[in-house]
Amino acid sequence: MPVVTVIVLVSFIAYSTWRAFENAYYYAEPLISPFYSPCLSTVCTPENAQFFWTPFGDWTIFGMTISPALFILIFPLGFRLTCYYYRKAYFRSFWQSPPACAVAEPHKTYTGETRIPLIFNNAHRWFFYAGLVFNVILTYDAILAFQNAEGAWGHLSIGTLVLVANATFLWLYSLSCHSCRHAMGGRLKHFSKHPVRYKAWTLISRLNGSHARFAWISLFGVALTDLYVREVAVGTISNFYFF
Ligand code: FES
Questions:
Q1: What value, to the nearest 5°, has the Cα angle with vertex 118 and ends 11 and 20?
Q2: Would you say 37 and 44 are in contact if contact means Cβ atoms under 8 Å apart?
Q3: Could you identify the atom of ligand 1 that is nearest to the CA of residue 85?
Q4: What is the pLDDT of residues 199-236, one digit of tens each?
Q5: How far is the CA of 40 from the centre of ligand 1 (A)?
Q6: What is the pTM of this model?
Q7: Position 93 confidence tier, pLDDT thresholds 50, 70, 90
Q8: DSSP string for residues in 182-219
Q9: Does any ligand 1 atom lie closer than 6 A to the CB of residue 84?
């Protein structure tokens, strides 16, 4: 399992880094890639700058324009990296701290998550809140995908299904998060006095049992959604419309 984890995570990091630096083919009316949404840079075309808010200019580094994807990457990346499930996976696969239950680790001393860089894992709750904002934006993108290429509403294409599935799995991943479960039901002394929170906590607890599955499905989902939008934008495939 650790080997599979290493291969999948490294492949995802390599693909997403390449795509972020490619800085092209992230929009094909009405589809936008999740790696570039929200597009908050002045280099975004008017169609894909959905919020008409572009706080970042066409800044360059080493003569290259900074890709809009890089301005927002910290939030989804921080959310994934600090996720309790991924921590377990990469602590065993990469960090060797610990390599497995009851296996001595190669590090001289165990410092847990009290020092740089692992101390940043304590920010998971804040990345969770930021992730919710991104989920709302990607859901909005999925709703926009019910248009055709001319902007008329009431159409359904493969791209619509891809964006809807991507947003759904990201919501399931976020709602099954341990921080979400704690935010909903943690620190309560009497569930009986908070019936709504208790109900929500019960539902989230059920989802929480599948958190690892949602983590992997949503990871593949976001990469495949980006790939689909890219191939449509390049012209390799066309976005088939059912109606
Ligand atoms: Fe995995 Fe929060 S524990 S996203």
A1: 35
A2: no
A3: 1
A4: 999 999 999 999 999 999 999 999 999 999 999 999 99
A5: 26
A6: 0.91
A7: confident
A8: HHHHTT-S-GGG-HHHHHHHHHHHHHHTTHHHHHHHHH
A9: yes
